[in-house]
Amino acid sequence: MSVLEKIKGGLIVSCQALENEPLHSSFIMARMAFAAKLGGAAGIRANSVQDITEIKKLVTIPVIGIIKADYPDSLVYISPTMNEINLLVECNCDIIAMDATSRIRPNGETIETFFPKVRKRYPSLLFMADCATFQEGMNAAALGFDLIGTTMSGYTEESKDDITPNYDMMSALVLDSGKPVIAEGNIWTTEQLRLAKNCGVHAVVIGSAITRPMLITQRFVKVMNGD
């Protein structure tokens, strides 16, 4: 089966831990991915060459790779430049995801100037657009992205007031984009997952609700404290 067929109708588990988090470890993320695979996950989303390399040693299901990198001249941090894309190609990601919002990228680039260069260099690879709005998703589809994600909804200035999970965005992109749509962002419950699935999306990504125990604990503690 193709990569897109392997993840169709499936759950993709995001296994990520940043440097300031207690589970920051490529060994731990690899074991987390292995546990997700045993639980029935159809794919993994992971951050950094180190984590992706270790994860691919333990699982054979498709991996969506990103590299989070901060640049002083841009708010874009998910695979923002060609340097990150090249590194992700080298570690054999099945799909490479990048921020496809309308925000200015490092060195004054836009997604309209940046992605055509990526596609020209890597014409046969699969690329996922992490978008915040319906318009950005449609723009990404027109630019030639292979998958459109709702990943950034609620995380940008343009989308900060949107209700998440953004079912309206999912449904509209499924109807209009002509591309496989990946539901991602603030899905915490099985009911939210069911609603996302009912939008007709190709697959669903869940991260924090499965793989970030510190945040999960904080949510329960807030209830115990009466918040």
In short:
The chain is α/β, with parallel strands linked by helices and 227 residues long.
**% residues in beta strands:** 15-25%
What is CATH's topology name?
TIM Barrel
Gyration radius, rounded: 17 Å
Which class do the helix and strand fractions yield? alpha/beta
Overall average residue pLDDT: 97
The CATH first-level class comes to Alpha Beta
What percent of the residues sit in helical stretches (DSSP H or I)?
40-55%
Q: Supply the CATH superfamily name.
A: Aldolase class I
Q: Examine the secondary-structure arrangement and name the CATH architecture.
A: Alpha-Beta Barrel
For the secondary structure, the number of strands is 8
- The shape, in one word, is globular
Strand and helix layout:
Blueprint: H1 3-7, E1 11-15, H2 26-38, E2 43-47, H3 49-58, E3 63-66, H4 82-90, E4 95-99, H5 111-121, E5 126-130, H6 134-143, E6 147-149, H7 167-176, E7 181-184, H8 190-198, E8 203-206, H9 208-211, H10 213-224
Description:
It contains ten helices and eight strands. The model has no long low-confidence stretch (mean pLDDT 97). Helices cover 41% and strands 15% of the residues. It is of the alpha/beta class and 227 residues long. Helix 2 (26-38) crosses helix 3 (49-58). The protein has a single domain (3-224), classed as TIM Barrel (Alpha-Beta Barrel).
Keywords:
41% helix, alpha/beta, TIM Barrel, 15% strand, 227 residues, eight-stranded parallel barrel
